[in-house]
Amino acid sequence: MYVIAVLKRKHAYDQNMQESKPITRLFSENGLKRNKTIELGSGPAHKLRSVLRAQTGDEITLFNAQDGEWRAVLDSIGKNKASATCQNQLRTPRPEPGPWLAFAPLKKDRLDQIVEKAVELGAERLIPVITARTENRRVKIERLYQQVIDAAEQCERLSVPLVDEPIPLSKLALVWPKDRTLFVGAERRDAKPLVSQAANTPPPHGILVGPEGGFEAQELDAVLKLTISTPVNLGPRILRAETAAIAALAVLQAQAGDWRN
Amino acid sequence: MYVIAVLKRKHAYDQNMQESKPITRLFSENGLKRNKTIELGSGPAHKLRSVLRAQTGDEITLFNAQDGEWRAVLDSIGKNKASATCQNQLRTPRPEPGPWLAFAPLKKDRLDQIVEKAVELGAERLIPVITARTENRRVKIERLYQQVIDAAEQCERLSVPLVDEPIPLSKLALVWPKDRTLFVGAERRDAKPLVSQAANTPPPHGILVGPEGGFEAQELDAVLKLTISTPVNLGPRILRAETAAIAALAVLQAQAGDWRN
Fold this sequence. Notes:
In chain A, the strands form two sheets. In chain A, strands 6, 7, 8, 9, 10, 11, 12 and 13 form an eight-stranded parallel β-sheet that branches. In chain A, strands 1-3-4-5-2 form a five-stranded mixed β-sheet. In chain A, a hairpin with a 3-residue loop joins strand 3 (59-64) and strand 4 (68-77). Chain A has helices at residues 2-16, 42-51, 108-120, 141-155, 172-175, 194-200, 217-225, 241-256, and strands spanning 24-27, 37-40, 59-64, 68-77, 82-91, 100-103, 125-130, 162-163, 167-168, 181-185, 192-193, 205-209, 229-233. Chain A has 261 residues and is an alpha/beta fold. At the A-B interface, helix 1, helix 3, helix 6 and helix 8 of A face helix 1, helix 3, helix 6 and helix 8 of B.
């Protein structure tokens, strides 16, 4: 994954920014400011050393939502830790609002697809929900969060989406704000197209997508009774759960989100 | 894959159609009509026998774009062949026009994602194009075509998208009709959002997505000079190639395709 990320960035820089050196982007939970030395943990140290073959003195960038993105120079790279000192700010922090995604965790590969692509498509918060037919009830949030960070580094976000602990679908209304419309992918039910509902409903938005087997009729009925919910149609074909999540996020961003900016 | 497909369909039928038996859908290249016995080859025979554990006398459905979808009864299931006799027509044939996708073949898993999801999202034709940085230059069309059939069976299409032999990007204009707009995902270039371009340009449409490393500057310049081409913006983040393809097809269908019907 990292090799691809770096190649991609290298090409992009070569082509459009006349820089030939690939710039590694790393998320930092620590505050970033000029001349501050940032300690990087074992995850980033491993990426730098074994995957990217970075060396002391190499430039990287560090980012987070609070401090923006900073050019930094690697001071040390060890087996389990590394450090870099911030030089100058490349991007100032700015809000990155986006749709929320509530989804039933799928089995491994398809869960990975949802998480990675939701980050690329600008989801602001990921809420795993356990439904009657959810296949993966032991989802590891730490693993999801690491994937979220990897994807945020790759796609040039400043913010890293929140990842909630899984909750039962029946509790979703307790964590969902009253002013954020919850579009519900309601297969084989009468519902208007997502694109027109998104055009007619001011953001913020979110989308709920069921598990591979779909919702049970009574749990879908219960969700659709919530005042936050609006059923939506995702076209005439039967979509896999991860396709529905990815497609819905793309349509929300294109119609009512930051693809319009 | 098939186990999931059948479970999903079983649930869907249980819930909304008061049928409890899963109905297996199989694509048939042979013409379908009442009382006609259809010979099924080794691929479908394997699915029926080993994956679905179907038995003689079970009901299945057979479909293709020319004859629609038919209820059929399995007459025989052998190791390398099976046969079923058409009973009654469930869906009449109808046109399934959709966007075309021209894409640089990626490595295995990500190529699989593009193909499967393009079918689910209603792509009408898939055209692999070889670009300067294309990673997978030995793509096997037979394998892609089998995936396309599997996905079409799963998502309830009647038609199976065409899959072209790979062509060099420089030859794309030779196979692309003059009246079909080719939207080009042009990362880091000045372009209008896909959703507004799709709203302002009558279908038919198609989308061209580059390889993981992006297009080389001169090949992108050459494509954008074609009269069929319109550059489009796919949002402020850097999308992986397969995410760009999937997201663009979803937006095209939502804005100007059959998600609006």
